[in-house]
Amino acid sequence: MEDKANSNTENSRRNFIKTTALAAAGFMIVPRHVLGGQGFLAPSDRLQLAGIGAGGKGEGDIASIVRGGKTDVAFLCDVDDRRAANSLKNFPKAKYYKDYRELLDKEGKNIDAVTVSTPDHTHAQIAMAAMQLGKHVYVQKPLTHDIYEARMLTEAANRYKVVTQMGNQGASGDGVRRLQEWYDAGRIGKVHTVYCWTNRPVWPQGISWPTAKEAVPKELDWDLWLGSAPYKDYINKLVPFNWRGWWDYGTGAIGDMGCHLVEPPFRVLALDTPISVECSVGSVYVDEFKRAYLPESCPPSSHVIMTFAKTPKTRHEVQVHWMDGGIKPERPEELGANESFGDNGVLFIGTKGKMICETYGKNPRLLPLSRNESDKTKITIPRIVNQEEGHYTQFAEAAIAGYGKMQLSSPFEIAGPLTETLLIANLAIRGTDVQRRDAAGKISYPGRDIKMLWDKVNMKVTNFDEVNQFVKREYRKGWTLGV
C-alpha cells in the first residue's frame, strides 16, 4: 500500500494538472497586497536572489529572472571564476562565493530565492540545503541526478513550504497547452503510443575515460566541482560542457533533453512514472567482434520504451518511446515527403489521428498538416505571458507572493515525477552494462534483453536487483543530501 508521503505527492500532482487552467489566471490577477504567510515579501520589497552556477545556462537563468523587473542579484556563486566572469560584470554589486555551503551559511538571512544551474550531480544537494533554510528554488533540468534525490526534493518542497520551479521552460509555452486542448477536445482520440526523439548527444559519449592527467586551471576549484562524485584527476574538456556524457556527473541525452520532450506527453496525458522500461543501445566496437565495455560513459545512442499505467485521460496503457543519438521513429504516413520531421520532436499517435511538436512543445501541428487550416478548437487553457521567458517571471512572482499563493508551470510536484521517469529510463540504459559472472568466470550481460519492472513505492526494479545501485548513489565522504 502506498505510504502517506507518496499519496500526498500524487494528490498534489493531480491537483496541479486539474488546475492548469487556473494557473495563468491566478498568475495574472492575484494582488500581492492580499497575500501573506511564509515566504511573503511586502509589495515594496524585491526578491533577493543568489545565483549558484553563474556561467553558461546559469548566466542565462539569472539574467532571465532579473528581466522580470522585481529581482536583485545579491549573491553569485561558482566554482569556476572563468564561467562567473560575465555575471560578475553584469551584476557588480553581487557578493561572490565559490562554495555554496559558505554562501548559504553566511548569507542565508539575506537571501529570498536561489537558482541552481550547476552540473546534474550537484543539483540535489544545493537545492535541499537552500530549501532547508526556507529559500525558494529554481533548479535547472533535470531536477536531480538520482531517482532517490528527485523523490526527496519533491517531498521537501512541501515539507519546507517553499516555491519551486524546474528549468524546463517549455512547460510555460503555448505549444503544450495547444496540444492539451486538442487532446481534451478529442481531435486525435485516445493516445496509445508516443515517440520522443533527439539529435543529442552533441558531446562525446561511448568513450573511455582519458588516462592523461592534466593541470587544473587556476580559476577552477576542482574538488568543489566534483562535489559528491568520486574523486578523479582533472581531465581537459570535461568542464564546462562534456560532463553530460559521464554517469558520475551527467544523465545522458535523456537527462539533457527529456524534460523538454517527454514533458508534453507527461502533461497532456497526465502520466505518472512508468511501470516498466526496456531498451537497446548503440554499441562501440574496438576490434573485430569485440564490443567495448564502457560503464562510465553514456552510450552513443539509445532507444527506451517506457510503459505507463492507464489514467482517466488515456483509459489504457501508453508506451512512450525515447530515441537519442539521431535515431528517429518511422516517418508518419500523413506527413508529406518534403515536410520536415525535425531533429528533435514528439509524435502522439491516437485512435483517431496524430499530432506532433518540436522541443519545448513548440510548433504543435495536427497531422496531416492540412487539418490545421480548418481547426477551430477553442482556447480553454490560459497562457503564460511571454511563454518560455515568462517561466522565469512566474517563479519570481510566486516567490514574492509566498508558498501556496500561485500555481507554477513546473513545480517539484510535477517536475519530480517527470525527472524520476527519465532516470528510470536511465536504469534500463545503465543496466545494459551490468556484468554478471558465472562459476566459471564467464561474463554475461543480463540487463540487455529484459523488461525492467518498476516498483514506485519502494523505488526499485523488482526483477533485476543489480541495477538498483543506480537509484541512490553513494556520495563522496563529506557530502550529504541532508535528509
From TrEMBL:
Start and end residues of each Gfo/Idh/MocA-like oxidoreductase bacterial type C-terminal domain: 212-279
GO function terms (MF aspect): nucleotide binding
UniProt-listed InterPro entries: Gfo/Idh/MocA-like_OxRdtase_N, Gfo/Idh/MocA_oxidrdct_glycsds, Gfo/Idh/MocA_OxRdtase_bact_C, NAD(P)-bd_dom_sf
Boundaries of every Gfo/Idh/MocA-like oxidoreductase N-terminal domain copy: 52-167
A Pfam family annotated for this UniProt entry: GFO_IDH_MocA
Protein's recorded name: Gfo/Idh/MocA family oxidoreductase
Organism the protein comes from: Pedobacter roseus
Organism lineage: Bacteria, Pseudomonadati, Bacteroidota, Sphingobacteriia, Sphingobacteriales
